[in-house]
User: Fold this.
Amino acid sequence: MDLPAGTRNFSYAEDMTIFRTRTQKASLALLFLLLFTAPLWLDKTLLPVANLIGITLIAATGLNILTGYCGQLSIGHAGFIAVGAYTSAVLTNRLELPFIAGIIGAGLLSGLVGILFGIPSLRVKGFYLAISTIAAQFIIIWVINHWESVTGGFMGMSVPYPSLGGFVFKSESSQYFLIMAFAVACIYFAKNLARTRVGRAFVAIRDNDLAAEVMGINLFRYKLTAFFIGCFMAGIAGSLLAHWTGFLNTEFFSLSDSVLYIGMIIIGGMGTTLGPILGVVFIRLLDQALTHWLVPSLEGTDILPIGFASGAAPMVFGLAIVLFLILEPRGLAHRWQIFKSAYRLWPFSY
Amino acid sequence: MAELLQLVITGITVGMVYALIALGFVLVWKSTGVANLALGQIVLLSSWFTYGMLVQRGLPLWLGFLIVIVFSILLGWIVERVILRPLIAQPILSLITVTLGLAYFIQGIVVFIWPISVAALPRLFPIEPVHIGPAVVSQQYLWAAGISLLFFGLLSLFFRYSRMGVAMRATADDQKAVQACGIPVTRIFSRSWMFACVLAAVGGVLMSSIGGVTFGLVETGLKSFSVVILGGLDSFLGAILAGPIIGLAENLGDGYLTRLIGWGGVKDVIPFVVIIIVMFIKPYGLFGEERIERI
Assistant:
């Protein structure tokens, strides 16, 4: 079903290939061409949105590995992103280390904090784990807010531009290339991770952790690995976010953001590589459409109550999460799959 | 000494309100198996609704509260019927995240209808402070604790003697057996949600009569999760006992730890630290039943 008519796999390697046919390779090349020339043809007001999508995509891909593949629900993802953001900010601003040290440090520290809060996952799951990650979110944000000598507390702190080997990423479009390079690398990693021994172990743990343990999968190791990888990506995303916005405070990392990340991978489709991409683009464009186009165009016309501007986005997002869970729990990725196979078979539907 | 006594009394009384809210959570968890993470937002919504009825509409207290109770029953019914009923027998991951979506949605509604961030309810309880030994305690706390106790009593009578209450306890115990006995399980589900929403509303009104109607009420709901975790997810007794413990820890920590470490706002983080500690030491809580899983 996944392959066009006439294409057959004769070896395992062929079967596992991601880009099998010439058309697929050509469309990948075209995608990259479009992606990396985007600053040339994309509207200037849309470029920041694209950057935000790229950053969110890295975080959501990490969460997808943790929740979608390994089945460990984390409602503290924004907290882990905050750890990365502040680590990178402290390393580059206060200690004046290069950007590359900042981003790697951010990933590692986030990963370690993730492991720390992931330890309860060895004994509990489901709701218990969800609550302990919510607790992680609150504790992390509280520590950041009160550790003023390092993080700047409620006042926030400024972050320098990222730089690599003397080149400073000052403009929006140069940052776009940086962010997209990281996003592509993370998606490539996630796609390949799912096909390795580790990835298959994650899926086994998600489907039934007891059965997985009986089959010889070391739960301790793999669950914590999942937490490490998921939070490592959160840290990378946090670091990029910090350097992109140039200023940090904890309002970027609230509990509702954590919920929104969960919503993104649900809307996109959990446990697929395509899912987070679709979900992130969907939510971010919806956000853009609501807060930047719809609300200003209706403002001053007296049709709307005052609360519309701030209340519309949470309402629509919440509704989207609920509706997707009830009507299409496998998300947009599944819809896209249905569409593709229907298109392949058309007009002979069987 | 006076300060200690004061902190202890405030802690225990506030903790009882947490316990009341937590009871609604335990009820839903036991009978339907759904973890209601929207609890904080339900508390928020019903408090704002109370504000809308009592202050904005200017209704008399008794009528206002009657409408609030009817509203929260209706809210529970709608939530169960529209959102949770289609998801029966879905994986726990969907059940948790759907309540997160609901939480998001309710928060949007609250911001939409009441775009102000702080408001005060009309005075419900007499304001003169009471002297207990050397301590001076605001009377509102005692009233809140008294009303919570009243609701504990009513609930335990309901579960002991009413037909519906017995059926609900039976559903919590064994769903399939109850179904085989001819008890309509879906109706029990919807009753549990109604109860949870009413308890959340009562807790919300009590909390906001003390501290005003703010977004901090969401955290009150979240704090009752730590009550639930400490007491054990499926234990009513655990929730009632753990509530005052959390309240005590919170107030004593606020009173003494703040001076010790010099960071303000210790009060807000202590319940979450308790959650993490309980997770590491005794994840099923004080009275929770440890589930042994089979493949």
Q: What stands out?
A: Residues 43-298+306-345 of chain A form a domain with the ABC transporter involved in vitamin B12 uptake, BtuC fold (CATH 1.10.3470). Chain A has a mean pLDDT of 88. Strands of chain A lie at 157-158, 163-164, 167-168, 247-248. The two ends of chain A are 11 Å apart (CA to CA).
